[in-house]
Specification:
- By secondary structure, this protein is α+β, with helices and mostly antiparallel strands.
- It has one domain.
- The chain is 38% helix and 25% strand.
- It has 3 helices and 3 strands, in the order ββαβαα.
- It has a 3-stranded antiparallel β-sheet with strand order 1-2-3.
- The longest helix has 20 residues.
- The chain is globular.
């Protein structure tokens, strides 16, 4: 059964898997995995953010945290804050991975997990 709630409470999904394809020479990529926390907003809000500022504006709004598998140059967990999020959002391949992960979460597509 699916129950429709006209004004639902905000939904945050924690530790949603994300794969970032790091570009390498010769057209290859290396897959880097991390986990993100997303606030799932409604489609009207998604559309408005995309029109106003593209995927960067959307991700700035919906990425509300990340797990300890997002690390800095020292291999220590990177603190989740506005400054670090802005730095990561300037990297196109990071944004690409985050966008794919968000829309998978928003669409209810179960994340593929390999053992």
């Amino acid at each position: 059964m699916f129950k429709f709630v006209d004004k639902p409470d905000p939904v945050v999904v924690h530790a949603w898997p994300c794969v970032i394809s790091l570009p390498r020479d010769g057209g290859s990529t290396v897959k880097a995995k991390c986990s993100l926390d997303f606030e799932l907003i409604d489609q009207d809000q998604i559309d408005e953010l995309l029109l106003e500022g593209g995927d960067r504006a959307l991700l700035d709004r919906v990425v509300v945290g990340w797990s300890a598998d997002v690390v800095g140059e020292d291999n220590q967990p990177l603190a989740f804050n506005a400054e670090n999020k802005a730095k990561l959002l300037r990297i196109p391949y990071v944004r690409g991975g985050w966008v794919r992960a968000f829309f998978d979460a928003a669409a209810g597509r179960a994340a593929a997990r390999k053992n």
